[in-house]
Each structure stands twice: as C-alpha cells, then as structure tokens.
Write a structure and sequence with these properties.
Elements (H helix, E strand, L loop, with lengths): L3 E8 L10 E9 L5 E4 L1 H11 L5 E6 L5 E6 L5 H12 L21 H4 L3 E7 L2 E2 L6 E6 L6 E9 L1
Antiparallel strand pairs: 1-2, 2-9, 3-8, 4-6, 4-9, 5-8, 6-7
Length: about 160
C-alpha cells in the first residue's frame, strides 16, 4: 500500500514565547483502491517538528472527504485490520444502500464518517504529540473509488 504524501499549502505565523499561533498545512495522500486504516502518525509528528517546537497546544487532524475519517487506535498488531473488519460487519458493501453511485456498496462509504469522524483534536505538550504508548493517528478510507485524499493538519498553541 503506497503512502505518497506531499505538502500542498502552508500558512505561517511567527509566535512570541507567550503568544498563541495557528499554523496549518494540507497534504495529498494516495490511499489506493482497497479499504485502508493508514497510520499517519509520522506525518503528524513531522508537522509538529516544523510548527510546534517546544510549544503546548492542540493538533487538529482533518480529512475533508465524505467517505473517510480519522481514528486514534493501535496499529501493527492486527487492531487496524480488526477495525476494518468491524466496519465491514457493521456496514456491508452490498445493494442495501440508497446512495448508489460508484462501485457496488459505495453507499456504505458515505456512512463511515458518521462512525469515524473526519477529524480528531489531540494534545501537544512541549512540541510532542501526547498519545498513549500504543495509540496511532489513522486515516480510515473504505472508498476504493477515490484513491486520492487531502489531509489538513492544524496546530493551535
């Protein structure tokens, strides 16, 4: 599964030690033609390394798509595959959906963001993402019809 990301736009402000700043950047990500729970934690860490050095604040991770979401979960131990299997069990890709354009069962993809929000807001302490030891930030994409996604990372701190 390819994880091709590149920066598209950047907004900068120059903070003083006691001021609050807002920084945001968008990235294009190729998720492929199969459903995926793609770990984007490293992309978040690189963004914070550039824009939040030594600062406390909040990282907002947002995917502006009607068929994708952001989750915080364990990856690499099978939990990510278990999560996708759970979505398949809850939302089968069959002909029950009223939303019928795209590949068979595509209507389920439009229900996913109701269960997996298209955003997550996470604490940043001293410039570091404050996740639990087994937690990762994951882009959840069940829509094989659209292999290209945009990810927006925003830091307020």
């Amino acid at each position: 599964m390819a994880d091709h990301t590149h920066s598209r736009t950047t907004s900068h402000s120059t903070p003083t030690p006691t001021s609050t700043s807002f920084r945001t950047e968008t990235f294009d990500i190729t998720t492929g033609s199969q459903e995926v729970a793609l770990d984007i934690t490293d992309r978040c860490v690189r963004f914070l390394d550039e824009h939040a050095v030594g600062r406390d604040g909040l990282l907002n991770v947002f995917v502006p798509h009607a068929t994708a979401g952001i989750a915080v979960l364990e990856t690499g131990s099978g939990s990510d595959e278990d999560f996708l299997a759970t979505l398949r069990d809850l939302l089968p890709a069959d002909d029950r959906w009223r939303h019928r354009h795209g590949s068979p069962g595509h209507g389920r993809d439009h229900v996913v963001p109701a269960l997996v929000a298209p955003h997550a807001t996470l604490p940043v302490i001293d410039g570091q993402l404050a996740l639990g030891i087994w937690q990762s930030v994951v882009l959840v994409d069940t829509n094989g019809d659209n292999p290209h996604r945009t990810l927006r990372l925003s830091f307020l701190g």
